[in-house]
């Protein structure tokens, strides 16, 4: 193949060695870009009044090209259509979806703008890999400008059921634009099934049983490619000084630690998690003063109202629960609204007896996998995982729960803190084997392999164990 061109709304910082400074996905993509002398294109994260052409710089053999957006575009394309319309829609929150024509118009316009700035940088033999819901119409905009390259699209978030998607005005238009890609990747078979259902029922299209969908006189291939961890990065983080120190400090405390790490996002089920923890304290008084929940909330999309309100709600709930159950020496629920370095987090994962990863809906959820990867094999903790996270399709040996049931989740917390070591080890071993095998390299290689080859993509089930 020629170069690989990755396009995403956000572009990671790349250092002089061609390595991304943080984040598993960014690192995996930068590894692929280094191999293929690639280009990473996206939004600079900055606003400017009259943005010019892309700013291109080379770092460690990777070209990074970014464009600025105007304040209006950031408001209507990023905060608006991406995060007030598509995000809640894809996470089954139609009650939070805002429908504004200005959002849809800016979404189309920014995708055109991406295409305008990217076209002059493209070579004929480049392969493009577009990421996530901000950029669904990008292939269509590029094709309209004459691009004949192979273009793949990967959706990191859930694909909603047809009945939910069709509440979006002009939903046909959004899906039609996906037929300008050569290959579409979803995190799980479940999200892929929902997409196929839409194509068959709404567009009266057909499936050929080998991963190809035909509708509107066009054919596109689609498959499930569950994303995984960069295991090299994980091992290095587990061994790091920061992780060891954090783990030792936390283990020295005279109580079992439960941990949650989430962006402060309504899809993550945080109020439900707090309520279940409260129920557990209520039901199991013998565990009071012996267990604490550390919930790290990474601030996110703070210009969007639904996110601001959530932080306020969590703060007051944590205060109330601590007021109700806490003692002079013990705060049961520690809610920290701050981002932490990944190596420190890894140490905290290792110190925790259980992780509570209970989104109401989630495309995949890599925290679940990171928690497993960070455990001590001789004394591993327990993963409590929502059955509505994409990760649940692979991580069957976790304690799978319905996060909407406060009582079921409270029971799972009790099972986790009481679980005998032998059972913890057996479950962890099975989980770890899957996490280590279905890693980030496997993910990107299988996607790129299918994008570049012409073979059917439905023939093998990437989730099969
Ligand atoms: C999810 C999305 C990503 C997004 C990330 C952080 O993981 O799938 O596309 O980058 O959240 O959200 P933000 O809005 O800060 O980019």
How is this structure best described in words?
One of its GO terms (biological process) is trehalose biosynthetic process. The model is unreliable at 458-465 (pLDDT under 50). The chain has helices at 24-35, 71-90, 101-118, 138-144, 162-165, 171-178, 189-201, 231-239, 241-251, 270-283, 305-325, 342-351, 366-373, 406-418, 421-437, 440-452; strands at 4-10, 39-47, 55-59, 62-69, 127-131, 150-154, 183-186, 206-207, 212-215, 218-224, 256-263, 291-298, 333-336, 354-357, 382-386, 399-401. The strands form two sheets. Strands 3-4-2-1-5-6-7-10-9-8 form a ten-stranded mixed β-sheet, sandwiched between helices. Helix 3 packs across helix 4 (138-144), helix 9 runs parallel beside helix 12 (342-351) and helix 10 packs across helix 14. The two termini are 30 Å apart. The protein has 16 helices and 16 strands. Bound molecules: 6-O-phosphono-alpha-D-glucopyranose (G6P). The site of 6-O-phosphono-alpha-D-glucopyranose has 6 residues, from loops. 6-O-phosphono-alpha-D-glucopyranose binds at residues 10, 132, 156-157, 300-301.
